[in-house]
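We were asked to recover a plausible sequence for a given structure. The inputs and outputs are reproduced exactly as logged, with field labels preserved.

PROBLEM: sequence recovery
POSITIONS: 90
GIVEN STRUCTURE:
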């Protein structure tokens, strides 16, 4: 009932990371500790990273950097300035 009242007053969406109903036995087993983290978890699942796709994206970006640097060096040469170092495009 209290949860329903909170939802009605604040428009919160009930989920297990915000609140949950517990039995007195569970509270007793926690030595009457009412610390919220004992009853609900705010931990979020880690995002899975596709390492192959990430590597391919980084290789592509590195190639773009190499191409842009080479183009920039043409302009620097026209201005009589030293070129930027080119990284290994592999």
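RECOVERED SEQUENCE:
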């Amino acid at each position: 009932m209290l949860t329903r009242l909170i939802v009605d007053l604040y428009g919160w969406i009930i989920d297990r990371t915000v609140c949950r109903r517990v039995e007195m036995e569970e509270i007793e087993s926690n030595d009457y500790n009412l610390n919220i983290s004992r009853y609900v978890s705010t931990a979020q699942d880690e995002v899975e990273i596709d390492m192959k796709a990430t590597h391919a994206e980084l290789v592509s970006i590195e190639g773009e950097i190499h191409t842009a640097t080479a183009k920039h060096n043409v302009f620097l040469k026209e201005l009589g300035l030293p070129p930027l170092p080119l990284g290994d495009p592999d």
